[in-house]
Amino acid sequence: MQDKNIAVGITGGIAAYKACELVSRLKKMGANVKVAMTRNATEFVTPLTLQSLSGNPVVTGMFDRPAQWEIEHIALAKWAQVFVVVPTTANLIGKLAAGIADDFLSTTLLATRAPIYLAPAMNTQMYTHPVVQANMRKLREMGVRFIEPATGRLACGDVGPGKLAEIDAIVAALEEAFQRVRDYADCRILITAGPTREAIDPVRYLSNHSSGKMGYALAQAAVRRGGAVTLVSGPVALEPPAGLEELVRVESADDMYQAVIQRYPDQDIVIMAAAVADYKPKILSGQKIKKTAEPLVIEFVKNIDILAELGKSKTHQKLIGFAAETENLEEYARTKLIRKNLDLIVANDLTQEGAGFGVDTNIVKLIDRSGKTEDVPLMSKADLGDLVLDRIKQLS
């Protein structure tokens, strides 16, 4: 933490007093700390206390007199290397998810490009409310990290999740954040995401249930960590991460192959997270196929195996594949790893609840070319994106 710039936001909850301990701990570890408080937070702990602990002026309002002649929320947004909010209320989570910036803290959070860590603390019923959980999922998809609350007795007397995480856990999350800050700078990374569509006629196509969420989470994490990221995306209903070097939209497996193979020689890492169709119709009808009394028979032929082709021509690149299976997960994944000359494979069992297509979480096995296997429990795809990048760093 020595000489790291950490912005600490504090919102109006009973756990606000614990932010004092966090600021004190970070200062003792050598960090530079600046604090921004909401007006409600000042009802629980005074700005003077945080100023004394941080050694810097504390901002509580949009129109506070700035210490220097600059737009202060922009200055803090640019200064911070990591931004953490302790505690984070349901109100702030909702505002960020909706893009509302109506006070100094929310405005600064929308303006910063630093990694954002939120430590929720609230009543159990509020924390588990579907709206709050939906807002948290939305923020995770945008790359915001959550330091999950503990379960215990809350100030209101309820027992359940919603208690602010221990300060040790918050500090550990920030230490991990700094280990990841721009550790992929000057690294060229190509990521594929989403499904492909194989046209049958001008109206119909063959596809799959991939939402693209895993590939987009990987791209978000790679951009945040300094990578020059090219995202080759099949048709999905997702906003691309800000900061991409290039976004290439494709439809068919042939389109994806051409986009990837043209860019492959210049890449350092290629992560093939897309669910590419294995087959396409042998004949593409130029007109809409009309319904008749006879059964419709379509003959299919194999698409080119993009991952296998990349494995054959691999030089300096690290090549990562995905395996989505419904049986014999590890056996099939290991076979694919070897046959396609991969460095790492991410395998998931589509029959497991919380894993696979269309959801915000995943449960996977990571297998590298040395044969090492890691079982990864249920986690958000945003967190898994960072974990996969961590493991790529460890590849020899």
Written account of the structure:
By secondary structure, the protein is of the alpha/beta class. It has two domains: 5-180, Rossmann fold (3-Layer(aba) Sandwich); 188-393, Rossmann fold, CATH 3.40.50.10300. It has 13 helices and 19 strands. Strand 9 (198-199) and strand 10 (205-206) form a beta hairpin. The radius of gyration is 24 Å and the shape is elongated. The model is unreliable at 66-70 (pLDDT under 50).
Keywords:
Rossmann fold, 13 helices, alpha/beta, 8-stranded mixed beta sheet, 5-stranded parallel beta sheet, 2 domains, 396 residues, elongated, single chain
Tell me the layout of helices and strands.
Elements: E1 5-10, H1 17-28, E2 32-37, H2 47-54, H3 72-79, E3 82-88, H4 90-98, H5 104-111, E4 116-120, H6 124-127, H7 130-141, E5 145-146, E6 150-153, E7 159-163, H8 167-180, E8 188-193, E9 198-199, E10 205-206, H9 213-224, E11 228-233, E12 246-249, H10 253-263, E13 269-272, E14 279-281, E15 300-302, H11 306-312, E16 318-325, H12 329-339, E17 344-349, E18 361-368, E19 373-380, H13 381-393
Parallel strand pairs: 1-2, 1-3, 3-4, 4-5, 8-11, 8-13, 11-12, 13-16, 16-17
Antiparallel strand pairs: 6-7, 9-10, 14-15, 17-18, 18-19
Helix pairs in contact: 1-2, 3-5, 4-7, 9-13
